[in-house]
Amino acid sequence: MVTCTGCALLCEDIDAVVENNRIKETRNACRRGAAKFRGCKNRLTPSVNKKQTDVDASIKKAAELLKTAKSPMLFGWSNSTCEAQAKGIQAAKKLNAIIDDTSSFCQGILIEKVLRKKFRTCSLEDIRNQADVLVYWGSDAQDSEPRHLSRFSYFPRGEARQRGYEEDRTAIAIDVRESNTAKICKGHFYRIPLKGDRELILALTDALSGKVPAYDTKRILELANILKKAEFGVIFAGIGLTYSIKDELDILVALTDRLSNFHILPMVGHYNMRGFNENLFKETGFVNRVRFDGKAVHDNKYAIVEALRQKAIDALLVVGSDPLSSLPRSVLPHLAAIPVICIDPCVTLTSKIATVTIPAAVSGVESGGSAVRMDGRVIELSKVVENNYLSDAEILARMMEGA
Amino acid sequence: MPTVMELYQLLPKTNCKKCGESTCMAFAVALLSRKKNISECTPILEGSFKKQKEKLESLLLPTAGAEETGMIVHPELCTGCGNCVVACPVDVANDPKGAAIGCAPTNDKVIFRVVDGKVIASNIKECRRFGKNRVLCYACIDPCPTGAIEFV
Amino acid sequence: MGIDVGKFLKAPEYDIRITTYRDIFQIEALEQDRFGEEYKKLSAAVMMGKSDMDKMGFKAGDRARLTNNNGSIVVEVRATRREEPGGIVFMMNSPWSNSLVSDDTRGNGIPEFKNISCRISLTKEDITPLEKLIAF
Fold first, then answer.
1. Whether A183 and B86 lie within 8 Å, measured CB to CB
2. Which pTM does this prediction carry?
């Protein structure tokens, strides 16, 4: 049995059939996981200034670029092992660099609240064994964390939930779109307008305080009633919810304060985004957007989007991420104008414009290590096939030798 | 899935009884439930019905892969989420320490397994829609949001 | 000397809001080949509810230009898989949708990836190729 790094569920029950050191078939992995094991069509090759070279030369050039930069940023990390993340944090310290990860424009603000214990949270096993009311809020688990409902939250029998999902559990979807997850929730799908999360949270908070909610009174009271009666409730907070209330997450804290049996679990797509948040938090007290300068300084201007917009960085190391694909195009001209070093198993949009490219092993397939599941549990990764690719952690270690 | 009427419209509508059914309508019903095969309608095999025969074959194609219970899995729609694996009452009964609690199946008695990111069905005779005490069970269809499983 | 009248007749423009989402088939295509046809087919598309399509006179398979201050792209029009009440349209999160996202985060560092205002109009132009989105 091996671990899947397709998403942050880190399913540990995958059967990978290996023949001649190649994965021939995967069993139990979902479509997303199977794709991860199958790998990409175009592997990255080492290059400097768009000319092919060897790995050693590309690592050497990368070290040189980072050392001579005045304000380098080390970015990516959500698709890297904890070991690589630790190396990255050490490198940022040594280089007096900015370090940020994809959680900066994803679930970082919510995970920070969890790590600061502003919310009650729980493990996926607790959910399987205890949970009776599940709220998928701005989260389409079916497409992003495809085995979430079958492995943990809705369909399995658990210790206190022995009779099957129809009788023992209630699944609720709150979304602007009838997603695959919403389809499963059927009678408990609450469609909200775009940016309507705030009004719904406030209306629910009213209903739970005995006030009459301002709109859609009947349905809101019905929903509030289900939440109130929960023995063990969970809100699976997706980025739909996080983006919508990013400036006032405290209204969600206030809602859960009224629901003493409820827990919040931020839904995470990339397999080790929570790992980066936890590792940096342990080291600095912040989950992302940190500049090292003798000490760790946290500021929103160290968010990758802001740093690029303000043209505040002069070199960028990208590890296991594709900012050219995932960032607003409006901030990309500056990215294209500075030296970019790309460490990735595959050719990406970013690697196409990078000054230096360094091919890496696919973590969880070609190299092992550990990662943090979306609920905070540390999971060991597997090395399924042998080859010569260096892991992210090995590349970073070699890059920082003598730096 | 085609309807009985769609199939009937394409038949000779002569009620010739050569197929063993008393009417063409009865033959259409038998076609849909896979009790009869198009080739049992001898008049339609003649040249003048060529177009109708081809149309009938294309309409019945989706049912061609149906298992004995009438189950069809559409791999191109399946996300491999495993909801059916865990929700199927036969899987729950046959694998209480695996599929029933959301884990990978621990034995080969289960009906649903996910291979290469898509579900495949086996042990089809265990399905509650099969055999003497069959029931109209929807346990694998209801949890599938993409319609990757259907019974015909 | 003839005058090409059609040249001066602009297709009507409508103001719309786009929200983005993720789709497992698109994620699979991304893992396999982010420069491939499958990824482009799934990403360079705008999904519209039937009522919106009827209102604007769009059909599935048409091409539409989406434009705002941040960028302009051409994508294919498709019907949403399920009935949607209308008012907003949908795109899978990708470099295509991201080319319409503003860099103004009001200082909080999180762009409005899921709330994009733009104008939409029918066009005969080709779908914007990925190469164009990564040329600066």
1. no
2. 0.91
